[in-house]
């Protein structure tokens, strides 16, 4: 028995080692395999590539670090920028819908919304159909600051996108748009 919970003495149906579900981590993996999910699909015997998170994580951290000074120069926080992007797409109307759309707790974004409203970047007003609900809208000033920050951020992204030829770039960006939630 290896330290990783794999019994090296017995071959599984696919010729690989069989798992004995002894450690907590291995029990979780076994449960996923037994009860099915995206990880349970058979994988062809091909050379392994790094996991998506292992490839994207460092890139995301670099992108966020590069965005931080740009946002600061425009007087925005990362959450403020995310809010402006979501409101500019016009896909959300209420604070609750916004929180869900951007993956934030609805009580924790109130300070961000207060700041954006104080800066004149958003408007909040009671929903005429339900006075308990606050309706959100981006203002012209909010759109202008969002557009300026976004243009500068996208110019900076050339550091990474510039390594791709035009076809690779087109395919990469299209694939990310298809895979991205929302």
UniProtKB/TrEMBL annotation:
SMART domains membership: HTH_MARR
One GO BP: response to stress
Domain named HTH marR-type: residues: 49-181
Molecular function GO labels: DNA-binding transcription factor activity
Pfam families in the record: MarR_2
SUPFAM superfamilies tied to this protein: Winged helix' DNA-binding domain
UniProt protein name: HTH marR-type domain-containing protein
Organism per entry: Mycolicibacterium arabiense
Organism taxonomic ancestry: Bacteria, Bacillati, Actinomycetota, Actinomycetes, Mycobacteriales
